[in-house]
Structures are given as structure tokens and as C-alpha cells.
UniProtKB/TrEMBL annotation:
This is N-acetylmuramoyl-L-alanine amidase. Residues 189-227 form the SPOR domain. PROSITE patterns: SPOR (PS51724). The lineage of its organism: Bacteria, Bacillati, Bacillota, Bacilli, Bacillales. GO terms for cellular component: outer membrane-bounded periplasmic space. GO terms for molecular function: N-acetylmuramoyl-L-alanine amidase activity; peptidoglycan binding. Pfam families: Amidase_3. Gene3D superfamilies: Zn-dependent exopeptidases.
Length: 227
């Protein structure tokens, strides 16, 4: 399964920031990176990004990348805003969007991801909604867009800044995707255990060296350590 993750906007997108100055891309890209890390733990999954840390990738380029790569799923990560963006408002919560005419699969996946986000974060559930956002309309595959909290809500803006909340959002989205598509975790290769034996402890270094020589004659690797 090929998945494209889209961290909305860019580092220098005008106006896309919290009332107290956090750029939305800081949140979006952090969640995207963690989400990729989590999704790569599943069998048969490959993940790519539509965005870039070095530039604000235009929307048509993002969707073109997804369509050209023939990915199975497009997931766009965002933080929400209300009002003029310069003052705190009471709007709060999380919502997940799909395109109005996309297949049933998108709505079902969005519902699962939304469920996981609300369960984990305990934020207000604003539900799954249909919208004509460009990245949802122009992508040819199943696509969802997650709004993970309001930058214009003082409480949620504080959460959006934290590594813990970012990781929580990423894990929730990954859990929703994994659950919906019945993804299986990769089997971890067991690590071999190394056992060590210490022979002798001396106050004089020469005694340790002499013993090490004797052990080497008998075929044992030795190491003299000064503690």
C-alpha cells in the first residue's frame, strides 16, 4: 500500500500561524514525520511526502505528485483557524474532511481516523465533513484532510505546540488507517543476546595483563579495563 502524507502549507506561507506566532507548518510537518515513522512499521506499506521543508510546494504540485506516484491514499495534516486569525476565539475541536463526491471508502476511513483522534485527544468532536478543498478534489485516490485543533483557540494552540500532542495526533491517524485497512505490523527480528564473563579484578595492572595472556592462550578474547 502506497501512502502519501501531506503536511499542509509551508514554513513561509503567509498568515498560517497561531495568534501567538506558531507557524502551522511546524505542527503539520512534525505530525507528518511521526506518522510516516509509525506507518512504516506495517507490512507492505511505503510512505512518501508531498511537501518539502525547503519550500512551500504549490497545491497542484502536491496533487500531481500523488497522482503520478499512483498512491493508494492521500492524508493531509492541518491545524485549524477561526475568525481573522489574529485574536483568540472559542472555536475548538477536531474535524476530518473528505471531498463531496469521493467514494464511500474515503468517508469510512475519515470516520475511523476521526474516532481515533477524539478518543486519544479528548477534544471536541466536530465530525467528518465534506469540502471542496483542492487536495481532496484533485487527487484521484482516497483522500482525507485532518484538522487537528484550532490555532486560534488558546488552549488548543498550547497543545499544538507540544511534542506529546503532535505524537498523539500522529498515532491516532496511524491507528485509524491501520484499523480500516487491516494492516499488520512487521515482524521484528529478534536481537541476539551477548553474555559477558569477568575473570579477576586486580589492584595491579600487570596481574591483569598476565591473566589476559593466559586466557588468550586458551582461545578466549580478553579485554583489560581500567575502572
Amino acid at each position: 500500500m502506497k501512502i502519501m502524507i501531506d503536511a499542509g502549507h509551508g514554513k513561509d506561507t503567509p498568515g498560517k500561524r497561531s495568534v501567538d506566532g506558531m507557524k502551522e507548518y511546524e505542527f503539520n510537518s512534525a505530525v507528518a514525520s511521526k506518522l510516516k515513522e509509525l506507518l512504516m512499521l506495517f507490512e507492505g506499506v511505503s510512505v512518501m511526502f508531498s511537501h518539502s521543508d525547503s519550500s512551500d510546494v504549490p497545491l497542484h504540485v502536491r496533487t500531481s505528485r500523488a497522482n503520478s506516484a499512483n498512491v493508494d491514499l492521500f492524508v493531509s495534516i492541518h491545524a485549524n483557524a477561526h475568525g481573522n486569525g489574529r485574536t483568540w476565539t472559542s472555536a475548538e475541536g477536531i474535524e476530518t474532511f473528505v471531498y463531496q463526491t469521493k467514494p464511500k471508502e474515503a468517508a469510512e476511513l475519515a470516520a475511523k481516523v476521526q474516532e481515533e483522534l477524539i478518543r486519544a485527544t479528548k477534544r471536541k468532536n466536530r465530525g467528518v465533513k465534506a469540502a471542496d478543498f483542492y487536495v481532496l478534489e484533485k487527487t484521484k485516490m482516497t483522500a482525507i484532510l485532518c484538522e487537528c485543533g484550532f490555532m486560534t483557540n488558546k488552549e488548543e494552540a498550547a497543545l499544538l505546540r507540544t511534542d506529546a500532542y503532535r505524537a498523539l495526533c500522529a498515532r491516532s491517524i496511524a491507528n485509524g488507517i491501520a484499523s480500516y485497512y487491516s494492516l499488520k505490523k512487521k515482524k521484528q527480528t529478534p536481537t541476539s543476546t551477548l553474555y559477558k564473563v569477568q575473570v579477576g579484578a586486580f589492584s595491579q595492572k600487570q596481574h591483569a595483563i598476565n591473566l589476559a595472556k593466559e586466557l588468550k592462550k586458551k582461545g578466549y578474547d580478553t579485554l583489560v579495563v581500567n575502572e
